[in-house]
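Quick start: read one record
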Amino acid sequence: MNTNRYSRRNFLAAVALTTVASPMVLPSSVFGDDEKVAPSERVTIAHFGVGGLGGRAFAATQQIKEAQSVAVTDCFKSRRESYANACKGKASLDFREVLTRDDVDAVLIITPDHWHVPMAIAAGRAKKHTHIAKPLGLSIEQNLACQKLFQNSGLVFQYGTQQRNMPHCWQGCELVRRGVIGEIKAIEVDAPNGGKGGYTKESPIPPDLGQDGFEMWTGPSPIRPYTQDRCKPQGTYWIYDYSIGYLAGWGAHPLDIMVWGSDADISGTIVVEGTGVVPEEGLYDTVYNWNMKIKLGETDFNFRYNKEDRTRFIGEKGWIEIRRTKPLTASDPNLLTTPLDKDKTILRRTNFTDNFYQSIDFVRSLKNGIEDFVLSIKNKQEPVSTLRDAIRSDNISHLCDIAVRTKSTVKWDPNKLQLIDPTPEQQKLLTRPIRAPWTL
């Protein structure tokens, strides 16, 4: 191998530091062209959004020999053009142009939250395999519309929670599923907090975005004046037009672990109540400082803000706690030494045609979560992180948002997927208006 080539590690580091793109001119060897499989065997991918996490996902895609990036859409001109040039693909402002292409197999949707489901539904209708960065939709209505389209489509849908491709998360959930802590009595979930503030004064639209770019960025959300904090973090995370804040934006990670490690959320009626703050001044207006007391059937569940994420399963025989960036912990360290027979793995993936089991060794072998998406497309199987589970965890975030905003107790039937005896105010928050010409 040429020792002078620009290393993937350096490229990943450079992309990770990029928040507003500058033009990239990189040799093709950065992208492993000399290591790729035959073009006819590759999954061709279009990238919808390449800022921040989207840029890192683009870099991750280039490590996968079975994948080929062929198109980039982004509302910022320099971003879409530089990334498209880097992969020798085509840059577009309008993602709909990409969906008409026969040479695109799949899309990675890593945009602000308000675009996730509208883009996914458009991609599904165009028969494209779809990856969505967490969280899922802006409303429960959007989540269920997404489910309706994809559930019998034969298309691969991957939810980008990332932690399902971390071996220690797999191990912790597998142990809980094996019953090493006995019957689950309670679950505790923490997620990082949101906040208030944000500059509200109207500002000129940056040339790199432009009026057309800002119009596309706004998309199905209400038209608002451009401000310096609107189209970048934390605006994209903490403005209610575009998200429900960290209830879902960060909560998606530990809530997904809760769903993966147990079925408490589908064991019976979900009852949600609690407190949180909705800012009344500034640009940011999503819930923060939340503390939710929830019943998942007979299981007690506490979901609150904290500095870090965690999911703790509390059973008859002790507890196991899973954190994103820290090792597993347990009430008794011996709980973590239970042998995991890879031929009898409980956390399985389901083929479209039959069932098969998969071990923690598979997760360790993956370069990244995008590789699981690509291999799932090639092998016609579900990815580790499914739409079915995404809806379960994301709906909990929305139920919490509804409870805080209406200052009421919310009841949800997880089998019928509907509110139980809702008030008019609760019912209204199940949906979000969508600005024409965009629809679900």
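The longest strand covers residues 184-192.
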